[in-house]
């Protein structure tokens, strides 16, 4: 039996590191950094990690809003969405995540696009 994506990404510890690295990259990315200027970064990192943990088959520890509610009215562009994807891929690379797992994460991210872009 194959391990879940959650397990293959290193469980809660591995995913928390990936989410933290991705947010650090977002804060440096010129296309999206301004979106985070007034954010509580430690709180945002925790929420992102918890969402990612739950979404990959780990325990349901996420207590935040759904994607549509979170992004409604933000008018996020395709350029911004793609910048986030690029940063997440880089964070996966930084954490030595395998190609199969990267592809699975990409599939999940793109499946949420309609709830994030231009809503």
From TrEMBL:
GO molecular function: heme binding; metal ion binding; oxygen binding
InterPro entries in the record: Globin-like_sf, Globin/Proto, Globin_bac-like_CS, Hemoglobin_trunc
Cofactor: heme
Domain of life: Bacteria
Keywords: Heme, Iron, Metal-binding, Transport
Keyword Kinase: no
GO biological process: one example: oxygen transport
Metal-binding found in the keyword field: yes
Residues holding heme: 71
Entry protein name: Hemoglobin
Species name: Marinifilum flexuosum
């Amino acid at each position: 039996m194959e391990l879940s994506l959650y397990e293959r990404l290193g469980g809660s510890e591995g995913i928390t590191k990936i989410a933290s690295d991705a947010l650090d990259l977002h804060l440096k990315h010129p296309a999206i950094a301004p979106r985070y200027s007034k954010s509580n970064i430690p709180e945002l990192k925790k929420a992102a990690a918890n969402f990612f943990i739950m979404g990959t088959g780990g325990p349901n520890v996420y207590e935040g809003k759904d994607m549509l509610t979170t992004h409604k009215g933000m008018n996020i562009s395709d350029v911004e969405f793609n910048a986030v994807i690029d940063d997440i891929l880089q964070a996966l690379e930084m954490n030595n995540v395998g190609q199969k797992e990267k592809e699975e994460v990409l599939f999940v991210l793109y499946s949420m696009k309609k709830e994030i872009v231009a809503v």
